[in-house]
Specification:
The chain is α/β, with parallel strands linked by helices and 344 residues long. The protein contains 11 helices and 12 strands.
């Protein structure tokens, strides 16, 4: 089967890339400022002598406490606590993540305010529903983790024993695919697969992934396109099965499940989470933050936490992360236009 490509997402989520998501799971205002000049070498690993050990750091989570993004940030902050005077996590939810991210983009630029930026940084801007937020207001420190979309159906649904079955069936039948909300990442992921495969799905939006999964279990819809972490317990219980994942490589948790690319559909889509600071933050500060948080992400404690919660650690340095976000903005802008979801 000839593979069809859906843009530069393959590069985006390749490497250590890829979710958002994902709620509940700097000094001058930077509204019009592009990333500051200089080396922009966030993540180069070079320590130019900046000492942040006496800095009190607040990590902004743009979603409610208790969700996946909140949990990942708290786990990473705990792993990094020995590197700062103190480190705390503050939840600033609202507007689909825009409220907290905009606050972080406009905060002090001395490294004392670090924001967990998510895929919504790209999707909200693509939709025009971003309260003035743009990804260029941030200088990314690093990507921390990603979660590919997993095409999941009922385990006893004999119509679908492979992704190929699912795609071919959709070309002659109405297939209902549930997601976590119209315009949310899992909606766009399913739309991306449909576009790549040259077919159409009937997208059914819910207020979060749980509602979609519940209706799938009840036989009210045909499939969901959410993260594996969100369906893991039902796969383990034998109620659901995953046909394919929109990742570059198979997931360690389900090594027998192929990627969409292996099935002939070059579609790599999902959510991601990372750290960012205001665009005007000095490069040497960003480099030191990268050193600290990348070491924390490599700690045994954080690795154990992420494994226990079925989260994938996926590290990408600052410049690569920034490039990926720009590519994803282009991708999602195209999908939003195809779906007629552009606001204004």
């Amino acid at each position: 089967m000839k593979m069809k490509k859906i843009t530069a997402l393959a590069l985006a989520l390749a490497m250590a890339l890829s979710l958002t998501a994902c709620g509940g799971n700097n000094n001058a205002p930077a509204n019009s400022n592009p990333p500051a000049g200089g080396s922009n070498a966030a993540g180069s690993g070079d320590n130019s002598g900046v000492d942040l050990s006496n800095l009190s750091v607040t990590c902004i989570v743009p979603y409610d406490a208790g969700g996946g993004t909140d949990a990942v940030m708290r786990g990473l902050a705990d792993a990094a606590k020995g590197s700062f005077k103190n480190i705390t996590v503050e939840n600033r939810s609202g507007a689909g993540g825009a409220t907290g991210m905009l606050y972080g983009a406009q905060a002090k630029n001395d490294g004392s305010i670090v924001t967990m930026i998510t895929v919504e940084l790209a999707t909200l801007e693509a939709m025009g529903n971003n309260a003035g937020l743009t990804y260029t207001q941030f200088k990314p420190i690093m990507m921390v983790n990603s979660a590919a979309s997993a095409i999941t159906v009922k385990a006893d649904d004999d119509r679908f024993n492979s992704l190929e079955d699912f795609i071919e069936y959709s070309k002659t039948n109405k297939v209902q695919v549930g997601n976590s909300g119209i315009g949310a990442i899992w909606h766009l992921a399913a739309a991306g697969l449909a576009k790549t495969a040259g077919t159409e799905f009937n997208h059914v939006g819910y207020d979060g992934a749980n509602g979609a999964i519940t209706d799938l279990l009840g036989g009210h819809i045909d499939a969901v396109a959410v993260s594996y972490a969100e369906v893991n317990s039902f796969v383990q219980s034998g109620d659901l099965k995953v046909l394919a994942v929109m990742a570059n490589d198979r997931l360690e948790a389900i090594p027998n499940v192929p990627t969409c690319k292996e099935c002939g559909y070059d579609c790599v889509l999902g959510t991601w989470r990372g750290l960012g600071v205001p665009a005007s933050t000095p490069d040497e500060v960003v480099d030191e933050l990268y050193r600290i948080f990348s070491e924390a992400a490599d700690s045994d404690a954080f690795k154990e936490f992420m494994a226990n919660t079925n989260n994938v650690i996926d590290i990408m340095d600052g410049p690569s992360f920034n490039t990926m976000i720009g590519e994803q903005l282009e991708l999602y802008t195209g999908l939003v236009e195809d779906l007629g979801l552009k606001i204004g």
